[in-house]
Automatic annotation (TrEMBL):
Subcellular location: Cell outer membrane
Keyword Signal listed: yes
The protein, known as: TonB-dependent receptor
Species whose genome carries this gene: Nibrella viscosa
Pfam families attached to this UniProt entry: CarbopepD_reg_2, Plug, TonB_dep_Rec_b-barrel
Length: 963
């Protein structure tokens, strides 16, 4: 590590002393009276062919100006031409001109031009990334529209070094979701999941996105809790014209749409992501499991009858998917104040059926020795109601006030009917899971932007966030019978409900959970420009503060049914009738209820975060720029729970993290940059990961529990990037990175003979390194019209990682007690990081024909095999295998008002395949289906099917205005 830093410093020094022999002139042009920027002003160096025009921000740059004293001539239609004499240009330096023009007559007084910065185009995003000090990549709303990606998760996978898990979670540079930081409009987004630190990108519909920027290197301005990357999601800010759009989409998925499935229904407005009051536990239930279980069987059965008998499965024909979007934008003036509003309402109803083949193998030396095998008919119906509502008031060019609100209400109704066999016991199994999940996510912000002077500006944000998640009445049941057994009539023996003496998560029971999280945030940033802008490149200093208070309340209740006396005949009834009120009596031959809730199944968590930073630019002439930064972060995590009737503090961690950063840019030419970056970052455990609460994952057949002994991980990051911008919308870049981890947090499989139990641990160390390549190429000068309308984009990443677990780790046992686990003979002490793909490839061909409004594109994506579930010597590590994905999209606009779209996603319908590394060589071998002693084995396989959508978007009364 020291050698790398020394080499980096030598390279930095050698570059800074190599300065060019010419200089640069840059600056801005404004209206002298209104201070509005003037777009398209002409700026030229008198007596030379050198010149430029101002961009949408009123800025211009003239490169390669000979070192001398020049006359600069600035002109703009309807304004007086201005001449600046004695402008001195020094070799290797930048001369900055900030000037204003006076109106030059009355003949064109009716022409009023007002501008707002364009941020959602491909050119704008490329320009923004080019000007950033940290190393970053991004995607614009324009490219998202071409790709017809439905949500942020689908869109962001086009970015270099990005892969997607479960169609919603983002991995950056092969690092797990916990190593990402997600921000919405510059405010940290809360985790959307109960069981992990993850942000579900599918909750953000694509039509409200302005752009997404992924920061790969750290800087003082960014929160320090990330290692893979920091993702900034920017929603649309304000409209550039008045409009009203309505869009409808119908979706068809072979193998799902029009198929007949077994599902369950819920009361309430499920189509809006809501549920009925009868799905909640009655307030009359005793809150203590001890008090409840001390009641007699009949009394407990009386409480059980208060729960609705909604166990019955229904046969349903799946309708096509449906999506609706309403978008409107308005701009108007109230006196001298420009007011604008942007509102978007989205609704979707989607369906997914998958037949999942699932196998669990016995530990030992024999390959393909089955322990259990199942086929899951997994049907899920999802709804999403989303609202974006933004207001902007521009009081003057120096003061803008905004209010941004984003709300999502989501639900998922999932029914799993599992048929299979416990091979080792010779028992047929039929299990049923009936689950409904509801999520509410709100993010509301008030933002202010103030230009104090031409050299100073400040912005601030006050934000409130809310995240709620409910699992009302998750019902599970398991039926068993002897494999191959038949009755006297020769028919198969009926299944019999498995009713244990004590509640457990595998057999019959009802689970309730709710999470409420409230977040208050305050952010402020200040920037000041130093120096004399007339004769050299100005240096800038930035400083800011970030404060956040997060309160989380989580509670879970679990009830299991109990057979009273001999209830054999009753247990043979099917799921539709078995729990009818007349069968839940608490009398011999009937059912009663037991409370399986533990004290640690509920907790209150608090996170207090305070940060301050300062950073500054040091310019070495016109070609070299060094940005130095320091960020200090204080974080307190507190976790409380009621244990044996007393409220106890289980976790109280105060951590201060000093986080230095360095970003250096050297301009090889006007179109080429070299970038180098160093930063220190951290990775804090999530409140859920600290909580000893235990949760059963039905689909994985695994128990997941937290670890209160987790510590904050620290990461040292090194990045180097070469980038070439041949034109405004073209780029080629190559990036290399190296990351060194201390105490990284990883998933750990507890050594247990009672099924799969996972927790979270601090390993000793890890490293992650790789290379990323990106290109974006157009053919505007080609002789062929077809090629002129064509654009090719692509990116590829090669990534390697290694985690060192050490000789022992701290983790809770099955009772929750923290132990030191000696790893000798238990698991590999070195392996790849979980979820890290060795390679990622994205490619796309985009065709746009402006004259006819026709667009089409073909997109390709693949991510290499990655660890899905960490294993040990008895239960091998499971890998998610690569899938080749091809998407096709076509759209056509008619009369500038009606747009029709056709999209086909996942054309190849490649199999989702999860395989375990039985032979322990750190990869999945090709002979996965063989029965040799060294064969690796499939543990989970399924296909989701292609997905075809047809969309119609109509614009009512669009009135184009000059923005």
């Amino acid at each position: 590590m020291k050698n790398l830093i020394v080499a980096f410093g030598l390279l930095l020094f050698s570059i800074t002393v190599s300065l060019a022999q010419t200089g640069t002139i840059r600056g801005s042009v404004r209206d002298a009276k209104t201070k509005e920027v003037l777009i398209g002003s002409t700026v030229r160096v008198d007596g030379t062919p050198l010149g430029a025009t101002t961009d949408v921000e009123g800025n211009f740059v003239i490169n390669n100006v000979p070192a001398a004293t020049h006359k600069i001539i600035i002109s703009y239609i309807s304004y007086q031409t201005k001449e600046l004499t004695g402008v001195r240009v020094e070799s290797g330096n930048t001369t900055v001109i900030e000037t204003a023009l006076d109106e030059g007559g009355t003949s064109l007084q009716e022409v009023v031009v007002k501008a707002s910065r364009a941020t959602n185009t491909e050119v704008a995003v490329i320009t923004e990334i080019k000007q950033m000090k940290p190393i970053a990549v991004g995607i614009s709303a324009a490219q998202i529209q071409k790709s017809q990606d439905r949500d942020a998760a689908a869109a962001i996978r086009r970015v270099p070094g990005i892969s997607i898990v479960d169609n919603r979670f983002v991995l950056i540079r092969g690092l797990g979701t916990r190593y990402n930081q997600v921000m919405i409009n510059d405010v940290i987004a809360p985790s959307t999941e109960v069981e992990s630190r993850s942000f579900s990108f599918d909750i953000v519909p694509s039509n409200i996105l302005d752009r997404m920027i992924v920061y790969k290197s750290g800087s003082a301005e960014l929160p320090g809790d990330f290692a893979g990357g920091a993702v900034k999601i920017y929603t649309k800010r304000r409209p550039d014209q008045n409009f009203l759009d309505v869009g409808f989409t119908a979706g068809f998925r072979p193998g799902t749409t029009l198929q007949n499935v077994q599902t369950h229904e819920r009361s309430g407005l499920n189509l809006l992501g809501l549920w009925g009051a009868d799905q909640q536990i009655s307030s009359s239930f005793p809150t203590s499991s001890g008090v409840f279980n001390d009641l007699n069987a009949a009394q407990r059965a009386a409480y059980a009858r208060l729960l609705p008998n909604t166990w019955g499965l229904q046969s349903k024909n799946i309708s096509p998917d449906f999506r609706f979007a309403l978008n409107t934008g308005r701009r108007f003036d109230v006196g001298d104040v420009r007011i604008s509003n942007l509102t978007s309402v989205n609704y979707s109803l989607t369906n997914q059926l998958a037949n999942v083949d699932q196998r669990i193998y016995q530990s030992g030396a024999t390959a393909n020795d089955l322990f259990e095998q199942y086929n899951d008919a997994n049907y899920s119906r999802g709804t999403r109601l989303g609202v974006l509502h933004n207001w902007t008031a521009r009081f003057s060019p120096r003061f803008t006030l905004e209010w941004k609100t984003l709300f999502n209400q989501l639900s998922s109704t999932e029914t799993v009917v599992r048929e299979g066999q416990r091979v080792v016991d010779g028992v047929d199994v039929r299990s049923i899971s009936e689950r409904f999940e509801n999520r509410s996510i709100l993010n509301s912000q008030i933002l202010g932007e103030h230009t104090i002077s031409d050299l100073s500006k400040i912005n601030w944000i006050a934000a409130y966030g809310y995240s709620g998640r409910w699992e009302p009445d998750w019902k599970r049941a398991r039926y068993l019978r002897a494999a191959g057994s038949t009755g006297p009539d020769g028919q198969p023996t009926p299944y019999q409900l498995s009713v244990p003496s004590q509640p457990n998560p595998i057999d019959v029971g009802r689970f309730f959970s709710k999470l409420n999280e409230n977040v208050l945030s305050v952010v402020s940033n200040y920037e000041h420009t130093f120096g004399t802008p007339e004769n050299r490149e100005p240096n800038r200093i930035r400083a800011g503060v970030y404060g956040e208070r997060r309160n989380r309340a989580f509670s879970a209740r679990f009830y299991g049914y109990q057979a009273v006396g001999a209830a054999g005949d009753l247990t043979r009834r099917d799921i539709n009738t078995i729990f009818a009120p007349e069968n839940v009596t608490g009398q011999p031959g009937g059912f009663s209820l037991l409370d399986g809730t533990k004290d640690l199944d509920s907790y209150d968590g608090f996170n207090t975060y305070a940060a301050a930073y300062v950073s500054g630019d040091v310019n070495f002439g016109s070609k070299a720029n060094l940005t130095l930064g320091f960020r200090g972060e204080f974080n307190n995590q507190t976790l409380e729970s009621v244990v044996v009737g007393q409220r106890r503090t289980l976790v109280n961690n105060d951590v201060f993290s000093p986080l230095p950063s360095l970003n250096f840019t050297y301009k090889l030419t006007d179109q080429q940059n070299l970038r180098f970056a160093f930063s220190s970052t951290v990775n804090r455990p999530e409140l859920r990961e600290l909580s000893p609460f235990s949760y059963f994952d039905f689909n994985r057949l695994a128990d997941v529990r937290g670890n209160p002994s987790l510590k904050t991980a620290t990461i040292q990051n090194l990045d180097a990037k070469w980038e070439l911008y041949p034109t405004q919308n073209e780029l080629i870049s190559v990036t290399a990175f190296y990351k060194n981890f201390n105490n990284p947090i990883e998933e750990f499989l507890l050594p247990s003979g009672n099924g799969l139990s996972y927790t979270f641990i601090n390993t000793k160390a890890a490293r992650n390194y790789g290379v990323e390549v990106e290109f974006r190429k157009g053919f505007p000068n080609a002789a062929s019209i077809f090629l002129q309308n064509l654009q090719v984009v692509g990116n590829a990443s090669v990534i390697r990682s290694r985690v060192v677990l050490g000789q022992s780790v701290q983790a809770p046992d099955l009772s929750g007690q923290i132990n030191n686990y000696d790893l000798t003979g238990v698991t590999d002490t070195e392996r790849a990081l979980a979820n890290q793909s060795p390679y990622l490839i994205n490619a796309g061909i985009y065709y746009t024909e402006p004259r006819t409004g026709l667009q089409w594109n073909i997109l390709y994506n693949v991510a290499g095999p990655r660890i899905f579930s960490v294993g040990n010597l008895d239960n091998p590590t499971v890998y998610e295998m690569q899938r080749h994905v091809v998407d096709l999209n076509i759209s056509k606009t008619f009369n500038k008002q009606l747009e029709l779209r056709l999209g086909v996603q996942d054309l190849l319908n490649a199999q989702f395949r999860f395989a375990q590394d039985f032979n322990g060589n750190g990869r999945i071998d090709h002979d996965v289906t063989s029965r040799t002693a060294n064969a690796d084995q499939n543990v989970r396989t399924f296909r989701r099917g292609q997905y075809a959508t047809v969309s119609a978007i109509y614009t009512f009364g669009r009135r184009t205005i000059i923005p």
